[in-house]
Amino acid sequence: MNAPVLPGPLADNPSLDRWVTFPAPGKVTVGTGRVELGQGVLTAMTQIAADELDVAMERITIRSGDTEFTPNEGYTAGSQSIQFGGVAMRQACADVRGLFIERAARVLGCKPSELDIRDGNILRNGTPTGQDYWTLAGAVDLSAKATGSGRRKAAADFAAIGQSSARLDLPAKIFGKPAFIHDMVLDGMVHARVVRQPNRGAAIAAIDEQAIKRAAKAPVEFVRNGNFLAIVGNDETAVDLAGAAAANHVTWQHVETPTSLQAEASWLIQRPAVDRIIGAPEPADPQGRARFEATYTRGHLAHASISPSCGLAVYRDGHLTVWTHCQGVFPLRAALARTLGLDASAITVHHVQGSGCYGHNGADDAAADAAIVAMKMPGVPIRVRWRREEEFVYEPKSPAMVVKVRALLDEAGKPSDWTAEIWSGTHNYRPGAGGNLLGGQALPNPLPEPPPGDVPEANGGGATRNAEPLYDIAGKRIIHHLVMETPVRTSALRGLGAMPNVFAIECAIDELAERAGQDPVQYRLSITADRRARTVIEKVAAMAGWKAGELGGAGRGRGIAFARYKNRAAYAAVVVELDVDETIRLRHVWCASDAGLVVNPDGAINQLEGGIIQSASWVLKEQVRFDNGVSSFDWETYPVLKFSEVPEIDIELVNTKDEPPLGVGEATAGPTAAAIGNAVSHALGARIRDLPMTRERIMATLLKE
Amino acid sequence: MTKKFEFSLNGKPVSISLDNEETPLLNVLRNDLGVMGTRYGCGLDQCGCCMVLIDGAPEKCCTKPVWSVAGKGVTTVEGLGTPERPHPLQQAFIEEQAGQCGYCLAGILIAAKALLERNASPTRLEIAQALDGNICRCGAHNRIMRAVEKAAARMREGVRPGIPQ
């Protein structure tokens, strides 16, 4: 018999003691490489471990994202935590449970099949045996490698999985307990602010140290290493004042500033790019078939995390310890090792929660800042907290994108051939090899800038994510222009290219439905045989009371859109109802999602709902502006959706038990964007293909009519 | 030149000596008094993460100089309730799972408390408008507003905060 195939993260981290230990009687510690980003993953992992180990959730302490203790699962990203990390956790726990059953059988002189576990106690034919995980822990070697032979629970036997468990981390946040990295206080800690190098290659021309010190109103010191300049002091207020003043008292040469022209997505076309085609070449001769072509764009977006990034570090006795809220502690450790010239074994990186990040924000860079200062001040714990403006200006942006859709239509007006041509900067510029940590770029002899790549198709693609429609279309291809130079650093934001691509596809599908004189729901159903896709489309239409042929106009409209995230994660269909005059007012959003087995239904709904609201904010309001530099630098110059602007939202999950789990965190962003686009078109009788849908664009569209 | 400032924090007198009387109240709370529930979000009076009650009125405190609260009463999220004796708002936020990352919640709870004190039966729109000075980036808005409605209903039925202010 072949050995069972281990889930990827477990194959990468086979030592079971990285996943499960029994540190004290009645206690279980579970390790995961996935980190809490506000998405509730640690609660879901605890539910999984409780079921597969047969212990109460209350016994479990979860340890996450720690180079010393936990599995290395790369980045917590791409809605993969439950789909992959959760399956690995299930198998690791099942293997551990299996080892204890075997050991107990030997101790008790019985067959393993006679034994069961209830809340950690070993039962023989239903009767307590006096043995439990903790009595046997000394005799079971958990440094053993996972075999995949532990039998995972059948869905019918789940107790915690599938229940809406309350988030374990929320009470601390609701009662005002220290909960975030920002709340950490280390003995002897000093505060630091970085005077940011405006761009790679910029050099300090002059520093008016006295002026900065006067502004601080309390003692501060400078730490400099090449063009890396930081202000440190015991008093956070003083370093904040000095950090703000430094903008006027440190001058730089070789400064490059992005221009307002570069803020527009259309700037990307004609830029130097690496081009490729995924799929067969475009048919040269459409042979008289009807053609459709339209271009959709979106500007740069900011993650705009509510808390500016923060990092702590101490360098003591040749060992660097770093605390960070980044998405991948192991990749950050590798990047720090290269940046600082240390061996990875001389660095420990611990994850501590920050605010929601939604992707690659300033977290890694803030950690690197703290580490660079710490190396210059051995023995002193350093806390770097970015300023609000620093976060907005220097966090990696989600790149602007242009998506051109070309389709050939059959006699019935259905697409028979589909091309998505995409221009975009990279969606993946994570620290990796170390050349792109901001602080590192300012050091003497910085590591070379890594060439921009994008996420491989095997991992869901970056700019190409969801560029291929899931619909039944005979010919499909993606033409990808990876634009090599972007006006600002760009990297991963929730869903990567999925939002602009689904916006383009699903707006185009509506345009085709209209050309064919068909209802958008019926048209979609007529071009997809995928059972699960049909189910969510039909479900959301029923939820919203969708009426075929309902007339829009008079400023009110309804739109539908659908996608399966990455064409391999959760399905989501969304209906939006809104009013438009000079601006758009969202009234109601309905969503049906098929995420397969859902570990924590309320947690999944919370994620789907958050994705809807965040996407609505992107579509209605958000674009990073450049005006002699990044001019979106606070909440007034980068407004996001407010409480009085959010719609009512109804979400239903379907098919929650029978299929393997599928990631949900990013599933609603694309369909929401497109459903808004389709509803606006329904209301106005005219289509807006450029995001965000600002007042200016709405007025321009109305005037064209 | 060190100066002494006295105010009341969650009903208890505090006294603090500072060189810089312009030090923001938020930094005094977090760094000098070790009261971490009130969060830093922007330092620009924009996001509401640092909202506290000053003599009962909701105010952002990241730029509010400490001298301006001398002799006044400051209430932070720690002053609402405890896990053992939660404020009805805190109880409702947990029941509704009203939050994702939770960074904005301390300020939102304060804004909601101030709302319910001046309006025991707010409409959804009134709740939304009262919270428009607080940013939630994760998209937990509807849960938060449901929790405020729930707490308001309970308080109208006579449920009182566990700890008197």
Give a structural overview.
The complex is a heterodimer of chains A (705) and B (165). Chain A is of the alpha+beta class. Chain A has three domains: 8-172, Aldehyde Oxidoreductase, domain 4; 182-255 and 304-394, Aldehyde Oxidoreductase, domain 4, CATH 3.30.365.10; 401-427 and 462-704, Aldehyde Oxidoreductase, domain 4 (2-Layer Sandwich). Chain A is 28% helix and 22% strand. Chain A is built from 17 helices and 25 strands. Chain A starts with 7 loop residues before the first helix and ends with a helix. In chain A, 57% of the residues are buried. The model of chain A has no long low-confidence stretch (mean pLDDT 95). Chain B has 165 residues and is α+β, with helices and mostly antiparallel strands. Chain B contains five helices and five strands, in the order E-E-H-E-E-E-H-H-H-H. In chain B, strands 2-1-5-3-4 form a five-stranded mixed β-sheet, covered by helices on one side. Chain B is globular, with a radius of gyration of 16 Å. Chains A and B meet through helix 5, helix 7 and helix 15 of A and helix 1, helix 2, helix 3, helix 4 and helix 5 of B.
Helix percentage of chain A: 25-40%
CATH architecture designation of the largest domain in chain A = 2-Layer Sandwich
Which pair of protein chains has the largest interface, and what are the residue counts? A-B, 63 and 61 residues
Q: Let me know the average pLDDT of chain B.
A: 95
What Rg of chain A, in angstroms, do the CA atoms define? 27 Å
The domain tally of chain B reads 2
> What is the 3D form of chain B?
globular
Short overview:
The complex is a heterodimer of chains A (705) and B (165). With 705 residues, chain A is an alpha+beta fold. In chain A, 28% of the residues lie in helices and 22% in strands.
